[in-house]
Design goal:
mainly alpha; three-stranded mixed β-sheet; 64% helix; globular; binds zinc ion
Length: 270
């Protein structure tokens, strides 16, 4: 364990001195978290999530959502984490988030806002994008610094470790990512969506629903997902730009699976 850490320090020093400015360009921070540590931390946070929230007691709905997730995970650019998907029973909460290491939680309130399978897949693809781009490790490294993270991972700072787990939980639930990270998750998410055979414009369809919710009298419901910056209108603009890179005939021909979604998700959640 200690030997492995020592090696990663050497590697880090090398990367920082060699690629310095390029690596940090655009406010991006470096990721010090190894995949193994990321998975371990993520599992700790997942245990917290499942203590605080109610996992939906419906195996058919759970496996339907997990299948959508695995279809996307198979085409993701990151394959070294065990992606897993669970539905949280919270009909009034429009949220979904991925934890470090690939555990994802989708709330029934979000599922009810989606009109078809492609829209749900769009949200899930975006969340996989955060995992694929190592955003959790980046955020952790930025928030706590190399020194503290290393001590935590070496088991030298148990109190701080608990703090990090709590912080990760808070970050996940409130979707606290940087503007740069959101853009990257949108770009990757749209790509995964397309590779999995879903229409990439389903991401735009869902974002329009978010905007409609936001515009409702009194600000509508509190929407943790996508509630962070950049604003929805700006993201819609960016998503339209991304969509233009995909062949229109393929986009139009990709199925949205509205009937299947009605049968396997909306009807059981009534
Ligand atoms: Zn996001």
């Amino acid at each position: 364990m200690i030997r492995r850490k020592a090696r990663s320090w050497v590697l880090l020093a090398f990367l920082v001195s060699t690629f310095g400015c390029a690596t940090f360009e655009g406010g991006r921070s470096f990721n010090i978290l190894s995949t193994q540590d990321e998975i371990a931390l993520g599992n700790e946070v997942a245990a917290e999530v499942e203590q605080q929230e109610t996992v939906l007691d419906d195996t058919a709905v759970q496996s339907y959502v997990a299948e959508i997730g695995q279809r996307l995970a198979r085409v993701a650019t990151r394959q070294d984490v065990p992606y897993a998907f669970k539905v949280i029973d919270a009909p009034d909460t429009v949220n979904a988030f991925a934890l470090p290491g690939g555990n994802m939680y989708v709330y029934t309130g979000l599922m009810k806002l989606c009109e078809d399978e492609a829209e749900l897949a769009a949200v899930m693809a975006h969340e996989i994008g955060h995992v694929a781009a190592h955003h959790h490790g980046e955020s952790l490294t930025r928030a706590y610094g190399y020194g503290l993270i290393t001590r935590i991972l070496l088991g030298e700072a148990p109190n701080e470790r608990a703090q990090v787990v709590a912080g990760l939980l808070g970050q996940a639930v409130t979707s606290r990512y940087s503007r740069e990270q959101e853009r990257e998750a949108d770009r990757l998410g749209m790509e995964f969506l397309f590779r999995a055979g879903y229409p990439p414009d389903a991401m735009i369809a869902f974002m329009n629903k978010m905007r409609a919710e936001e515009a409702k009298e009194g600000g509508g419901r509190w929407l943790p997902i996508f509630a962070s910056h950049p604003p929805t209108t700006e993201r819609l603009h960016l998503l339209h730009g991304l969509l233009a890179q995909y062949p229109p005939d393929l986009v139009a021909a990709s199925p949205r699976y509205a009937d299947r979604y009605q049968q396997h998700a909306l009807a059981p959640l009534e």
